[in-house]
C-alpha cells in the first residue's frame, strides 16, 4: 500500500483504508493530517464510517475516533453493521496482550449505541447490545441477551432480560452500581481498590451466582 491512510467516500459516509503493515502511530499522524485537510468533509452532527484493511483493537479504534472529533468537528459516528467488522472487540482465549481485544462474529441484528450514557438515560435491546462508550452512574443498559461495553460500566446493566441465564456482561472497565443477569442480581462492593489495574472483565452466572472475572480467566 503506497499510503498509510486512504480515504474514499461511500454514499454519505467515509471508508478509511489503513495499511495493515504500518506502525499505528504513523497511521495516526497521517490520519490526523487528512482529517485536518478535509475538515469540511468530516464536519457534521454524525457520519457513517468504515475502517478497513487493518484489524483495530479498542484503544486504536478510540484513538482514531478522538482524532475525528478533535480535528474534524465530528459530533457522532455511526458504524453500520454492513460496513464494519467487530471481530476484534473482545479478548480471545489465546490473546496474549490484554490491551488487544477480539470477539466472535457479532449478530447482525445487535443494537449499537455510540456515545456516553449519562444519569437518567436508558438503552434497551431485544437482542445483543453493544455500547461504544461509557455507562455512567444513573444510566442503565438492558438487553434480552448479551451486553458488550467498549468503555467503563459505572451504572446498571441487565443482561438476559428475556430470562437467558447464559447471557454475559462485558466491559473494558467494570465498576457497576448493579449487574443483573436474568433474575439474579449482584451489587458492587462498598469499597473499591482505586490502585487496582483496570482490565477487561466479564460477568456471568456460575452456580446461580453472578461472578466477575478478568476475560483472561473466563
Describe this structure in words.
With about 220 residues, this protein is α/β, with parallel strands linked by helices. It has two domains: about 70 residues; about 110 residues, 3 Solenoid (Pectate Lyase C-like), CATH 2.160.20. The protein is built from three helices and 15 strands. The strands form three sheets. Strands 5-7-9-11-14-15 form a six-stranded mixed sheet, with no helix packed on it. A five-stranded mixed sheet has the order 6-8-10-12-13, with no helix packed on it. Helix 3 links the parallel strand 3 and strand 4. The chain starts with a strand and ends with a strand. About 15% of the residues have low confidence.
Question: What's the short version?
Answer:
It is built from 3 helices and 15 strands. With about 220 residues, it is of the alpha/beta class.
Beta strands, count: 15
The largest β sheet comes out as: 6 strands, mixed
- The figure for the number of domains is 2
- Classified by CATH, the class of the largest domain is Mainly Beta
Distance between the termini: 38 Å
**β-strand amount:** 35-45%
CATH third-level topology of the largest domain: Pectate Lyase C-like
- Helix and strand succession? EEHHEHEEEEEEEEEEEE
Total of helices: 3
Question: What structural class do the secondary elements suggest?
Answer: alpha/beta
Mean pLDDT: 78
CATH architecture of the largest domain: 3 Solenoid
**What is the global morphology?**
elongated
- The unreliable regions are 81-108
Helical residues, percent: 10-25%
Based on CA atoms alone, the radius of gyration comes out at: 18 Å
Strand order of the largest sheet: 5-7-9-11-14-15
Subunit structure: Interacts with MinD and FtsZ.
Family: Belongs to the MinC family.
Function: Cell division inhibitor that blocks the formation of polar Z ring septums. Rapidly oscillates between the poles of the cell to destabilize FtsZ filaments that have formed before they mature into polar Z rings. Prevents FtsZ polymerization.
InterPro entries: CAP/MinC_C, MinC, MinC_C_sf, MinC_N_1, Septum_form_inhib_MinC_C
